[in-house]
Structure formats: C-alpha cells, structure tokens
Amino acid sequence: MSIVRKLSLMPLILLLLTLGCSEESAEKEERNAPVSGVITDFVEEKGQVLINNEEDNGVESGPILISLHTNAELIINGKTVSAPLDGTLVGRRAEVWTGPSIAKSFPPQTTALRMIIH
C-alpha cells in the first residue's frame, strides 16, 4: 500500500476515534452517583453538607463531607440553581458526582461536580 493511500485513511481513523471517545464520556455521565444518601448536617463555616453515604444495595459506607466545586451543577427539585449549600437541605436525599480527590480525614471530604437533591 502506498504512502498516499495510507495517509488518505488517516481522517477516517481520527473520526472513528473521536466518536468512540464521545460515547465513553456520555456513558460516564449516566453512571450512578458515587455518593448517595441523606444529608444529616450542614457545616456553615465551610459551606459543606454531611451525607451518610449508602452503597448500591442500601448499606451505609459512612459519612462524607461535600462542598460544591466552583463550576458545580446543583439541581434541587429538578431545577438547576446557583444558590450555595445551606441548612435547609438537612434531611433531604442527595446524589453527588465528585471530583477525583478525597481528603484523607474523618469524615472524608471532597468536592461535588454535580449534586442532585430530592
């Protein structure tokens, strides 16, 4: 196969790779939230909520402190809001998609990239 023919296939290969990557990122968005449970407390000084994290089968895996990332998406009762976290959320159920890092403290702390409160 000549070099010209090989190079003519390059745009097709790049297109297929791009399509594959976009499908993978869409699948990540639809996955279950890594943190899910009832908000049990609000730490006003840090603007954090404490959530009793539950695993998929409803077993508690322990509390975790969550703060909002500066670009976080906060959805309350199906509406996207720009309000900060506050004490009125205590007792409500939350699903949280977190950033890549979790502080090794007790309870652990992380930031929310997306939070849905029911």
Describe the structure.
- It is a single chain.
- The chain starts with a helix and ends with a strand.
- A hairpin with a 2-residue loop joins strand 3 (60-76) and strand 4.
- By secondary structure, the protein is of the alpha+beta class.
- The chain has helices spanning 3-8, 10-30, and strands at 35-43, 48-54, 60-76, 79-81, 93-98, 109-117.
- The chain has a five-stranded mixed beta barrel.
- The protein is elongated and about 65 Å long.
- It is 23% helix and 43% strand.
- It is built from two helices and six strands, in the order ααββββββ.
- The longest helix is centred in the first third of the chain and has 21 residues, at 10-30.
Question: Can you lay out the helices and strands and say which pair or pack?
Answer:
Elements (H helix, E strand, L loop, with lengths): L2 H6 L1 H21 L4 E9 L4 E7 L5 E17 L2 E3 L11 E6 L10 E9 L1
Parallel strand pairs: 3-6
Antiparallel strand pairs: 1-2, 1-5, 2-3, 3-4, 5-6
Radius of gyration: 20 Å
Low-confidence stretches: 21-28
**Helical percent range?**
10-25%
SSE string, helices as H and strands as E: HHEEEEEE
Taking the sheet with the most strands, its summary is: 5 strands, mixed, barrel
How many strand segments?
A: 6
Structural class: alpha+beta
Q: How does the overall form come out from the CA principal axes?
A: elongated
Mean pLDDT across the residues is 83
Proportion in β-strands: 35-45%
What is the straight-line distance between the termini?
A: 60 Å
Number of helices: 2
Strand order of the largest sheet: 1-2-3-6-5
